[in-house]
User: Fold this.
Amino acid sequence: MSDDDIDLSSLSDDDLVQQMHDDLYDGLKEEIEEGVKILLERDWTPYDVLTKALVEGMRIVGEDFRDGILFVPEVLLSANAMKGGMFILRPLLAETGAPKVGKMVIGTVKGDIHDIGKNLVGMMMEGAGFEVIDIGINNPVEKYLEAIEEHQPDILGMSALLTTTMPYMKVVIDTLKEKGLRDKYIVLVGGAPLNEEFGKAVGADAYCRDAAVTVEIAKDLMHRMHNQLPAAAG
Ligand code: B1M
Assistant:
């Protein structure tokens, strides 16, 4: 049966949420937008719509992406569908003050204009409840410094797709060290030519193989950071 046959407004809340998970999986942006509007009309809070319908749906997408069941074009469609839902929810969430998991500044390094992977990571992180400030492509160290100064994120994310641009990540991290800022941030790096060894060598907290793994690592490191805070304070 095609989705055209389903009248979303006739579904119970549980069935509608289930259907939205399927629609996210299939990258159906209009259906997701409609589903979000219906749940809001049924007095769901924006936060519940975000977490129960969108984030849970993207979690399933992320897992299947990680496991090689879904591929990049499909995940981009899912991410785009989620973006449609997020577009409706974002102003409402800002009003209602939904709890944020954390904040990340992310950008592609100087000399590199690849941004598909970075965008995907940003969307998946947003889907997982992070606030994401995307500073785009071709970023010199000054741009990263400006962005972290302005936004005070928990996480700095860098992307590089070229073997010629990936060493620039070390320039950024070394500059953070020189300025005594390195320990203030979780630094995550990613991009097709990188690997774990490289991440360690440049002084990042972690190398992230893909968008789903980035979300897992980011959550894990945020957890650890928060658990350390009371001990450090006491
Ligand atoms: Co370019 N390109 N490209 N390219 N391009 C590659 C990377 C290349 C491997 C192709 C090849 O030759 N086989 C090759 C690099 C070779 C090398 O360095 N060893 C290459 C080259 C050479 C070039 C040019 C130099 C070509 C030329 O002009 N002669 C040029 C460079 C331009 C520049 O940057 N200065 C160039 C240009 C382009 C396009 C503009 C045409 C286009 C980019 C469009 C865009 O991004 N808006 C492009 C594309 C599309 C590619 C390939 C085909 C696909 C990259 C991609 O989007 N993958 C790529 C070949 C390949 O990788 N198979 C190639 C899909 C994306 C979802 O995956 O980016 O790996 P990826 O992101 C993943 C993970 O890596 C990780 O999560 C993402 C999602 O799961 N991740 C992060 C990425 N960033 C992260 C950041 C994080 C965490 C995880 O932060 C926390």
About this structure: DSSP finds nine helices and five strands in the chain. Residues 158 and 189 are 5 Å apart (CA to CA). The beta strands are 102-108, 130-134, 155-159, 186-190, 206-208. The mean pLDDT is 91.
